[in-house]
Amino acid sequence: MEFVLDRTFLFHTLQELVRINSVNPCIAPEGRGEREIAQHIAESLRNMGVEINLLESIRGRPSVVGVLPGKGHGKSLMLNAHIDTVGVADMSEPFAATVRNGRLYGRGAYDMKGSVAAMLAAARAILDSDIELQGDLVLAFVADEEYESIGTQEVLRHYKTDAAIVTEPSQLQLCLAHKGFVWFEVETLGRAAHGSRFEEGIDANMRMGRVLHELEKLEKSLRQRKRHPLVGPPSLHAAILRGGTGLSTYAARCELKIERRTVPGETEESVRREIEKILQKLSQQDETFQAKLTTLCVREPFEVDAEAGIVQTLHASATRVLQKPPAMVGDTPWMDAALLAGAGIETVVFGPSGGGAHSAEEWVDIESVEKLAAILVHTAANYCC
């Protein structure tokens, strides 16, 4: 299969994307959201002759979907990338898109505007080279992955494909699994009283201390469990602690927010039960101990079989472009891949090389973005058949 990848278009597109402030406003006050970058992507797709759909479940937070329609009844494929970024605190030139030693620097260059540029360049190469796809190729540029993933959730209400590639940066390795998480809140209840009247007060903060002691033991035990071969062991940490109203007042309540990172095979029910057992134990030890547990948010872990069709097709395409087989790995952060897989879409993660995601110096390797674009072309041509 012959095709032409317009590297000048890809590079200029990447620079333009990084120069747009698309910081998620739910994360940082300077964030302008996705409207400007969505309009830029939509215009680029229109210039290629691609029909687009703007999806906006929350006003001002659009996602862009373009479809390259297939000619027949082949399998359909979605390429997915998020267009929001985290904040820019401590970055000297977050939107400069400067280039040094083959790297392009700026907020979102690695996470994940390099992937956005690669997807646009791949679409252009398919169209310019008259590559005939039998199944639809869906290009999803989604809002809000860094916070609540409203973009991919909205896309899934309108589009269902046979397979998907989430182009999160993966160092040009096939990512077959990632962790999930559950956010819990534990509240311990006490009785407010003057600090001098110990016989009247019940200290909710002291009772939370008992919870923390037991959670630390649980966290250590999680590390001793059988490791998942791709993502390692589960984990837990106490993220936010609040309690008390004054130095001379017994605390009437104390709140603890917990993040429990889950591995494939674990469920919200199973990890919740672990914490419930701790609270039940403490209640049995002291009749004045009162606590309640609330689940705040659940994001499932993700895993795909190495023998899945999209994995095998992508692996073959990457081997051809890279001239060596790519590694098959797992990763620890949560991604939209879990939402796509949960919707019954065979999903894999594959993206460019770089570093500095969420840090003060973020960069993407430009050559890896070019290779990603070429691999996406090969994969679409061989899968959508």
Helix content: 25-40%
Biggest pleated sheet: 6 strands, mixed
Q: Which value, in Å, is the CA radius of gyration?
A: 24 Å
H-E order? HHEEEEEHEHEEEHEEHEEHEHEEEH
What is the CATH first-level class name of the largest domain? Alpha Beta
Overall number of structural domains = 2
CATH topology annotation of the largest domain: Aminopeptidase
Q: In angstroms, what separates the terminal alpha carbons?
A: 13 Å
Average pLDDT level: 97
Q: Write down how many β-strands occur, each being a DSSP E stretch of 2 or more residues.
A: 17
Alpha plus pi helix count: 9
Describe the protein.
Helices cover 34% and strands 24% of the residues. It is of the alpha+beta class and 385 residues long. It folds into two domains: 7-178 and 302-383, 3-Layer(aba) Sandwich (Aminopeptidase), CATH 3.40.630.10; 180-299, 2-Layer Sandwich (Alpha-Beta Plaits), CATH 3.30.70.360. The strands form four sheets. It has a six-stranded mixed sheet with strand order 1-2-6-3-7-15, sandwiched between helices. Strands 4-5-17-16 form a four-stranded antiparallel sheet. Strands 10-11-9-12 form a four-stranded antiparallel sheet, covered by helices on one side. A hairpin with a 7-residue loop joins strand 16 and strand 17. Helix 3 packs across helix 9, helix 5 crosses helix 6 and helix 7 (309-322) packs across helix 9 (366-383). The protein is elongated. The relative contact order is 0.19. The mean pLDDT is 97.
